[in-house]
Specification:
mainly alpha, two-stranded antiparallel ribbon, 11 helices, 2 strands, about 0% strand
Length: about 280
């Protein structure tokens, strides 16, 4: 089933790619735009779920002061606290379980796309294919290794699955390696710029999602750093999908924040002042 899904996604990408080439676009633009159009398709299909998720999360943020009041009042009565909390959620149309659903749906698409681009790279379909300088088949690690001309003992390029962040970093520390790296900067810099942009977009999404929640402040930094480390080894095509999807998500989220803020102003307030315990 997984292989069939991957073949379906590859077929869809190739249909889009062939459509681009028929109107006279080169391979780089054809593959790049095919990935962008796939991103648009996934976002459109997921829009109802994403809308519900973002609205629910924004409302939960607005409800934090009311939840704190409930915790203060029913702190010693867990059953009553749960009952009143669920009542508050129902009153404002909040579903706490809806937050992870869009991510769980996107994750298989993300993994499948990685598999498709990996297969296309092995078949040389994406060899030397760039989109605005971004190597679609190469990762930040592989493009930097190419710039450094990293080879094994036999003089052959080191296989992708044997490359690592530490290996490439240590290999670039000598003065000669740094000269080589920056003399070939065009090979890797655009993949790195895209990676940095994704890290920033991830931070911004986290910041918008957890605004006003001090408990999430540390996660706002840990998550982007963690994802940046992972992305070092992801093909540029996957990063392109991720970056475009994140950008669209932020635009959508900003609209939801504005609409939700207006809606919550018109909702009745649970307590105008903290109730006194009897």
């Amino acid at each position: 089933m997984w292989e069939q899904a991957k073949n379906l996604l590859r077929g869809l990408l190739e249909i889009m790619y062939n459509g681009m080439t028929k109107i006279g676009l080169g391979d780089g633009f054809a593959w790049g735009l095919a990935i962008i159009f796939l991103t648009l398709l996934v976002r459109i299909l997921m829009h109802p779920l994403t809308q519900k998720q973002m609205t629910s999360m924004q409302k939960m943020q607005k409800l934090q002061p009311m939840l704190k009041v409930l915790q203060d009042k029913y702190g010693d009565d867990k059953e009553a606290l749960n009952r009143e909390t669920m009542s508050l959620y129902k009153q404002h149309g909040v579903n706490p379980a809806s937050g992870c659903l869009p991510l769980l749906i996107q994750l298989p698409v993300f993994i499948l796309l990685y598999g498709v681009l990996y297969d296309l790279t092995k078949a040389d379909a994406l060899k030397n294919i760039t989109f605005f300088g971004i190597s679609l088949g190469g990762s930040v690690l592989t493009t930097m290794a190419d710039a450094l001309h990293l080879v094994d003992e036999s003089g052959q390029p080191i296989p992708t699955d044997q490359l690592g962040v530490v290996m490439v970093f240590l290999s670039s520390l000598s003065m000669n390696a740094l000269r080589l790296l920056f003399s070939n900067i065009g090979i890797w810099i655009f993949n790195l710029i895209l990676l940095i942009a994704i890290a920033y977009l991830t931070w911004l999404q986290q910041h918008l999602t957890s605004a006003g929640n001090s408990q999430m402040a540390m996660m706002n930094w840990i998550m982007p750093l963690f994802l940046t480390y992972i992305c070092f080894q992801l093909p540029g095509g996957v990063l392109l999908y991720w970056g475009v999807s994140s950008l669209m998500g932020i635009v959508h989220q900003l609209k939801v924040v504005k609409i939700t803020s207006e809606e919550m102003k018109n909702k009745p307030v649970l307590y105008k002042e903290k109730p006194k315990n009897k």
